[in-house]
Amino acid sequence: MDALARLTDIRDEYEFLDSDDRYRLLIDLGRALEPMPDPLKTEATLVRGCSASVWVYPTRCENGTLHFLADSNAAITKGIIALVLETVQDRTPGDILATDIEGLLAPFDLKNQLSSNRTQGIPNMIALIRETAARLEADQR
User: Structural domain tally of the chain?
Assistant: First the structure.
């Protein structure tokens, strides 16, 4: 199953749940994230503007795709990270730049479902992912 189909499945489940169960789903998604080694959690990988600590570490795979390791010290924030990564994980820089990440996340209505403290860093994380993709896309030319 590709990532966008998986995101659709997650959204379908999310829409069916009440608010407490939505929190649990986000926490479960966060727990399922690939572990990010502690040595990668540095000032250089820290996403600015998040109320919780969020780290994102991009790697370029041999096939030209980007793979992101990410983590947070807050369980629900980690789940939001997992949703963001579902939209971009293991895709080429060009594909990432062409992806409407915000549009794919819109059905989750995170701004209305969660406190602003939990969602304020999402745009910064998305910007960091796009900047990385743009830099690597330019390097290919």
Answer: 1
